[in-house]
Design goal:
Length: about 270
Amino acid sequence: MERGLGARKMLDYSIGFIGGGRITKIFLGGYKNADISFRKVVVSEPDEKRISVLKGEFPDFIIEPNGNKAVAKCDIVFLAVHPPVMGAVLDEIKPVLSPETMIISLVPKFTIAGINEKIGGSARIARSIPNAGSLVNYGYNPIAFGKMLSIEERNKVISILAPLGECPEVPEEELEAYAVITAMGPTYLWFQLYELQTIAEKIGIKRETAKTAVLSMAAGALKLMEDNRLDSTLVMDLIPVKPLDKEEEYIKSILRSKLEMVYNKLKS
């Protein structure tokens, strides 16, 4: 059985998403894939094209244009907008938020204290950094909790995120680092793996088996990294022929410079 999957489960509270972009679509898709339902799901999104796509994929959910205040009346409110519009969104929903509402921010840069200050100072807030693997219930979504959340409320938040994959509790000050490593991390790998698939087909592996070969190779490589009996030097010495050996340091230098730049921007 895949992680997060099982018999259909109904979670008896309403959830809402402010923002109907990629992350919201990933989360809703993950819940659908895991056969998880809620009493009510509301999504607020101003873009008509996105609204049309969401309505087509999730016909049982309420998708509203500019329905931020409707979302704010849900039991659980996900903030899934770009940082530049976060301040305006918080100003808009502040008057309609209930003291019992729990807010889960998926937005980097905005701290729990900063969000709390914008909406009144006593809100129940958690922050999480979402991961694309949540779409297939193999996400890695680290979470940090605000002081106002009780143990029971924290467990409730975890019960919402758990069907999407792992959701370890981490210090809030580490969340931007996770944004660079786990949220953006697949983009550092996918283009290379898809290119290997293309090359495999070009040099003679049949199309229907090229993808299987690449996926199996990647899974085995990850298992070797996971084995605590082997350190990184031993793992990387298992294969004697390294076609990219001379380029490795250059590739690593690109990763270091680019990712440090992105991290510093998120923390500024």
